[in-house]
Every structure is written in structure tokens, then in C-alpha cells.
Design goal:
This protein is an alpha+beta fold and 157 residues long. The protein contains two helices and nine strands, in the order βββαββββαββ. The two termini are 23 Å apart.
Length: 157
């Protein structure tokens, strides 16, 4: 059994924990062209991206990609016409990618492959791309609560 943190050629793999989060979202087909085209439109509906964490969620067995952002206080009325959803909390394996845009985007698939190789994956929750800032992406794979965790338990993402 793997203990965390552990290193991978793409970066450090940690276990992080989060609470369920209310989100505003929009679903698109899980086709790369459609996902890439949807991001500028999704981001464009907000008055500002300041304080927002943009995420992409993929549920196992689904052909849908969910663009999402955690709900902020200023989103109280949701006059933006977006869907309401929940970003599921719990334990996740995280591999943080850092690099130049757009090159770092080309590492996302490899990061998820690396995480799925070592994860006791929880298929009931989505895997998540969390865009922290330009050139920094957290790739998150949900894990079952029984996964052995050392002193990194409880870190927030």
C-alpha cells in the first residue's frame, strides 16, 4: 500500500480533504474541442474571476464534463443562468501540475493516469481539475476513506 506524500515524475502526490461545496456549473460533452470552447464562455459570464476557483469535474462512466466554480457570496441570486451543483468533498489524491500555459494542459491526462494507478478510487465521486492560477492545476482523484494516509490528512485544496 502506498503512503503519502509520494513523488512522481510530474510532481508530489498528496492526500487532501475538502468539504462539499455549493457551485455554479455548466455541463458540456466530454469532447476536447467542446471543453476547450466552453471555458471562455463560462468564465465570461462572471463579473470578475477574482476569488474564483475554476474546476472541471468528470464522473465515471459519464460523457459529460462539468465546468464549475465554488459559489461566492456575490453569487447569491445566480442571475447568471448557470446550473446549481455540489462539488463533492472527501479525501482526494492530488498531483499539482506547474508549468507554462498552454503546455501544462498537456500534462493533465498523464497526471490523472498516474493518480489512478495508485488510488483506491471512489467511483461515486468525480475526478477534478482545479485551476488554481495560470500555470497551476491540481488534478484530484477521489479515494475511499480506507486509504492509508499519514500526516498529510486534513490538508485543504
Amino acid at each position: 500500500m502506498t503512503t503519502y506524500p509520494t513523488m512522481h515524475e510530474l510532481g508530489r502526490i498528496d492526500v487532501v480533504t475538502s468539504e462539499d461545496r455549493s457551485a455554479l456549473s455548466r455541463d458540456v460533452s466530454l469532447e476536447l474541442d467542446e471543453v476547450q470552447a466552453a471555458w471562455p464562455e463560462f468564465e465570461g459570464v462572471f463579473d470578475s474571476l477574482r476569488g474564483r476557483r475554476m474546476m472541471g469535474l468528470v464522473f465515471e462512466g459519464s460523457a459529460t464534463y462539468r465546468l464549475a466554480t465554488a459559489r461566492l457570496d456575490r453569487d447569491a441570486d445566480n442571475a447568471l443562468g448557470l446550473d446549481e451543483s455540489i462539488i463533492p468533498g472527501g479525501d482526494y489524491l492530488r498531483l499539482r501540475l506547474r508549468g507554462e500555459v498552454p503546455g501544462v494542459y498537456g500534462q493533465i491526462e498523464a497526471a490523472f493516469s498516474a493518480l489512478f494507478e495508485v488510488a483506491d478510487h471512489d467511483p461515486e465521486r468525480p475526478h477534478i481539475e482545479s485551476y488554481r492560477r495560470e500555470g497551476e492545476i491540481d488534478c484530484l482523484v477521489p479515494i475511499r476513506p480506507s486509504t492509508k494516509v499519514d500526516d498529510v490528512k486534513g490538508r485543504q485544496w
